[in-house]
UniProtKB/TrEMBL annotation:
GO terms for biological process, alphabetical: recombinational repair
Protein residues bound to ATP: G217, G218, P219, G220, T221, G222, K223, T224
Record region (Disordered): 1-26
Pfam families named in the record: UvrD-helicase
InterPro entries per UniProt: DNA_helicase_UvrD/REP, P-loop_NTPase, UvrD-like_ATP-bd
Name used for this protein in its record: ATP-dependent DNA helicase
A GO CC term attached to the entry: cytosol
């Protein structure tokens, strides 16, 4: 059996080299020394004098900003364990030991810490030498004799647990400390899982930067945490490259981003930006309108990309007059047919519209220079640039290949039935075209009530005019809910980089949610991505996930159910309530009060339409509540969550109000059942389902 030591234990540590008979005291001493070393590292950076190494104020400002970031990264978070594990290797890493000598020992933590002479006190979990902490097993010990896990209360080390990987007499076991860490009450924002990463998760985290990975994972499999830790790993392994190209985490909504925003800083990574898809595409228009579901589905269809391409290309017209350039006493003539050949060549190359608009005057100017050379002149590049700026050339380009405003193109498509029909012919049906057209056309870009789907169309049109800047790596979470056009918008942001795509097909809760990862990755422009599936659940109790999985045959046939590793008898309560709406409200308040007797966070999840009534019922009973995105604290642990915002969130205890209302609140039954599946799987320790109406058939 593994050694499990609490604060009162004093079992000798056979691997200790300090001579102490109290291994827990020895480990606490190493923790104290490591914290002191980290403080020393921070003080060394704070004491740097840059006055003699900067040539000017610009260099000084840049260097000072880098120093400030380094100081932040070296902050010691008192309630965050500096190290969570230890590896005792049988031999020296990368070499062999003399007979009778001991192997090397490494403490594994969230960041690297070294002492005053540069010797490591804590090794970063991302370093190659740390990988066996996650991957070593009895069948493949990877030269590790002992793996030790540490237990903490707050920031104080209180326990340890050993695995002797090369001892055949020691039985396989499930780590109690690992289980306790997974089940630790959740108060505050999402925390990192660096101490509990599983082998199959670690393989995804440490996969290379060059390729895109798609992770299909059911509720509680840790896919979001895996994606965030993958970013942290890539920044460690490819820091210089990603510092130049940038990284971005894309989430479904602001509440979700607020919930996850502390994970990367806790791992020492401060520079990763976060955004929603709507944030990415709202660059120039204000979103004030909302589409009906059927309209949004058409606007999000990939066929709209070709409609937009045709509409933008329609601004190119055939030249009807020659271009005549006057320079001094000479006139240089480029006939219309030659200009047409230039236009045809640019169209054939399928250049972006704006790039071709910039190239055409240079092509015309080059033709003029050829005539000058034939006449015996010797023009240079400066002459060509001057000719390209000639009024006659500029007028010709304006007539043949005019500049276009992407928002105005989309405005015309949604307002002008003839313009839309001309460019949607053979792509969209008449019914689909009618859905796109505004009942009351807007007069201008500024006055239009743009929807979120319209902003994506404008973004696509903008990319057809000028290439969108690409980042080095993008993490896209809850990806199953995106439309093809939204996938294209994200794909443009990593066209020359890679991506980590995270999601669960069974949790697709938009009318345009994807049916397969192959289709989604095609629209993302990453058709060669590797798809990995996480099926082991660590968050949701077995009883709860089994209950929710009753919906899978209806909402996502063929998708494997999550197999939870956590058995928790009594974690699921399903209770019918009499007395109509008033009786249900009272029962919900009582269930919240019962949950509040436990430690940890409580989420009351309900159909969006039920939120006002439940908020009033809680207030009448004297219970204050938070909204999604507001940080829970020890004094304020109850959050009232609309079902539409529950995705990606987790609570120790969940009270789910009226499942039938959650289903009925969506445009169709499949989407409603998927929304219910999400709501049912937010609990870590316990779920109480209350209903006055009959349960949905698939659940009952």
């Amino acid at each position: 059996m593994p050694a499990h030591v609490s604060e009162s234990d004093s079992t000798p540590d056979p691997t200790s080299t300090t001579g102490t008979t109290d291994p827990l005291a020895h480990e606490r001493a190493h923790l104290a020394a490591s914290r002191a070393a980290l403080r020393g590292m921070r003080e060394d950076v704070q004491a740097l004098d840059i006055r003699d190494v900067t040539a000017n104020w610009v260099n000084a400002a840049v260097l000072q900003a880098q120093i400030d970031d380094r100081i932040k990264a070296l902050a010691d978070l008192s309630h965050t364990p500096l190290f969570f594990g230890r590896l005792d290797y049988l031999h020296a890493v990368g070499g062999e030991l003399a007979e009778g000598a001991e192997g090397e020992r490494f403490y594994i933590g969230r960041r690297h810490v070294h002492d005053a002479v540069g010797d490591p006190m804590v090794i970063d979990w991302r370093a190659p030498v740390s990988q066996p902490y996650y991957q070593a097993s009895r069948t493949n010990p990877q030269d590790v004799g002992l793996r030790r896990r540490f237990g903490y209360t707050g920031g104080e080390l209180t326990a340890y647990e050993d695995e002797h990987l090369t001892d055949p007499a020691e039985a396989e076991h499930t780590s109690r400390l690992l289980q306790a860490e997974i089940e630790r009450p959740r108060v505050g924002p999402m925390r990192d899982i660096v101490a509990t990463i599983q082998p199959e998760q670690d393989e995804i985290v440490r996969s290379g930067l060059g390729g895109t990975i798609c992770v299909q994972g059911g509720p509680g499999t840790g896919k979001t945490a895996v994606g965030l830790h993958r970013v942290a790993y890539l920044l460690y392994a490819h820091r210089e490259r990603l510092a130049r190209t940038g990284t971005l985490v894309i989430g479904p909504n602001r509440s979700f981003l607020h919930y996850i925003e502390q994970v990367l800083p806790a791992l020492g990574e401060l520079e990763v930006k976060q955004a929603t898809v709507d944030d990415l595409v709202r660059t120039g228009v204000e979103v004030r309108g909302e589409d009906e579901a059927a309209t949004a589905v058409v606007k999000g269809d990939a066929r709209m990309a070709e409609v937009l391409r045709r509409a933008i290309r329609s601004h190119v017209t055939a030249p009807v007059e020659p271009v005549v350039v006057v320079r001094g006493s000479r006139r240089w003539r480029v006939p219309a047919y030659e200009v047409q050949e230039m236009v045809d060549e640019l169209l054939a190359r399928d250049m972006r519209y704006g790039a071709a608009h910039e190239a055409l005057p240079q092509r015309i100017a080059h033709a003029v220079l050829v005539r000058m050379e034939e006449a015996g002149e010797a023009p240079d590049d400066r002459v060509q640039n001057a000719v390209a700026r000639n009024p006659a050339v500029k007028a010709a380009v304006k007539a043949v290949w005019p500049a276009v405003d992407p928002a105005k193109v989309v405005l015309r498509l949604l307002s002008d039935a003839e313009f839309l029909a001309a460019h949607a012919e053979g792509l969209l049906s008449e019914e689909e075209q009618k859905r796109l057209l505004w009942a009351k056309p807007a007069r201008s870009v500024k006055s239009a009530k743009w929807s979120a789907a319209d902003a994506v169309l404008i973004d696509e049109a903008g990319d057809l005019v000028a290439r969108t800047h690409s980042l080095g790596h993008v993490v896209l979470d809850e990806a199953q809910d995106l439309s093809p056009m939204q996938y294209r918008a994200v794909g443009r942001r990593c066209s020359t980089g890679s991506a980590t795509v995270l999601g669960d097909l069974a949790q697709g809760t938009t009318p345009w949610s994807t049916e397969s990862w192959g289709e989604a990755l095609f629209h993302l422009g990453k058709g060669d991505a590797v798809v990995e599936e996480l099926t082991a659940g660590f968050r949701v109790p077995r009883e709860v996930i089994a209950y929710a999985s009753r919906l899978l045959p209806v909402i996502s046939p063929g998708l494997a159910a999550v197999e939870s590793v956590r058995e928790s008898p009594g974690s699921l309560v399903v209770r019918g309530v009499a007395g109509g709406a008033e009786g249900l409200d009272a029962a919900v308040v009582a269930a919240c009060e019962e949950s509040l007797r436990h430690e940890g966070s409580i989420g009351l999840i309900a159909a969006d339409a039920r939120i006002p009534a439940l908020g009033a019922a809680l207030a009448a009973a004297g219970h204050a509540h938070l909204s999604p995105g507001e940080e829970t604290t020890a004094a304020s642990r109850l959050t009232l969550v609309p079902a539409s915002l529950a995705k990606g969130l987790e609570y120790d205890y969940v009270v789910l109000d009226e499942p039938a209302a959650v289903v009925d609140g969506e445009p169709d039954e499949r989407t409603g059942l998927r929304r219910l599946y999400v709501a049912l799987t937010r609990a870590v320790s316990g779920l109480t389902v209350l209903h006055a109406a009959p349960l949905p058939g698939a659940l009952a």
